[in-house]
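Hi all, long-time lurker, first post. I run a small reading group and we've been trying to get comfortable going from sequence to structure in the token notation. Rather than ask abstract questions, I figured I'd post a concrete chain and ask someone more experienced to write out its structure so we can walk through it together at our next meeting. Sequence below, copied exactly:
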Amino acid sequence: MTHRNAIVTGSASGIGAATVLALAEHGYDTVGIDCNLAGAEATSIRARDIGGKHHALLCDVADEAQLVKAMAEATAFLGGLDALATCAGVSEKTPFMRLTAAEFNTTFGVNVIGTFVAIREAARHMQNGGRICTVASVAGLRGGGLMGTAAYAASKGAVLALSKNAARALAGQGISVNCIAPGATRTPMIAEAWKNDTLRQQIEGLAAQNRTAEPHEIAANIAYLLSPQASYVTGATLVADGGLTMY
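-- Answer (accepted) --
Happy to help. Here is the structure in token form:
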């Protein structure tokens, strides 16, 4: 088991929390960053039970100054930085013709700006061999069409493009950047919608596996992309959607 350090944004719940725990299982020390400090701390406590050194920080990833500070504090706590997973994200379900620029800005602030700043700041602290995994969505590939509408789909499409650009920009530093695009995953983001069995079955039925992913399934793929075993993988998008897009 290789000792490595990682920062995970959006660690309070869902894919972010599962990623912290998956990394702890692989021997990483972690810092989780989230606007829900209680949730992030609860994740860190669970990670400590697995083993290693784990910490949580309060931060709104859409606030550049807050995120720059949190990334520096996290790296200082860890004593270095090997890996970053940008799991923080928000959804948006406003119909196209009712969507406002303000809602667009809010969604992009978390999903795109938060991802960009985290990548940029991680790159300041990483050495050769650093690894970054961003989290997009099949909505970014399909233009929405499940539950995510214009601002969400556009933001996740932006994450896909940003990840490829970052892979090019950071290759000279020996830093790899990849992206995962999950399909429907059982997280708080879809919990309310999944109470509607008809909607759930309709969306699940679009995928070959006809089911919803569990967060730990997506986290396992993130852990691989952050690992030394993925050393020759960069600028790639891993689609984990149960056969929805066959991308």
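A couple of things your group might point at:
Residues 32 and 229 are 23 Å apart (CA to CA).
Residues 101-125 form the longest helix (25 residues).
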